[in-house]
Amino acid sequence: ASSVPVLLSPSVNMGRMHTPGKGIAASALPYKRSPPAWLKVSAKEVEAQVAKFAKKGLSPSQIGVILRDSHAIAQVKSVTGNKILRLLKKAGLAPALPEDLYHLIKKAVAVRKHLDKNRKDKDAKFRLILIESRVHRLARYYKRTRQLPPNWKYESSTASTLVA
What is the model's pTM? Predict the structure, then answer.
């Protein structure tokens, strides 16, 4: 019995963090990276629209949804050459917290508020632990990639001010 390492096939996907699911549903981007021929919007106009929406307080994904649904710009990157967040960083309008971390913190604050009213909700308490562990893991990643300052720390007592 030789100890030959078993290689997983490349189609095996990494599972989700706190659930058994291994879903692979996703939208596929078009192969062609250039903007469609019928789109008559310049890169400067798109950058101006992105900046305008950011000044209104919209997140990068909300900006992308509005541009896709209302302005027929499917992929900002194909028109401008840069993603929305990069355009915002260039203009100095990027959000202080990365969007995914912001939404996890917002969810943790909502669950904690629920637990203040419903102290016996053991399931919510368990879910809060899972949510906060994801916050800590994501914060560790963002510190490593220098998108958060090294002294940034998630504290449940001050979390509601982060998402207010």
Answer: 0.83
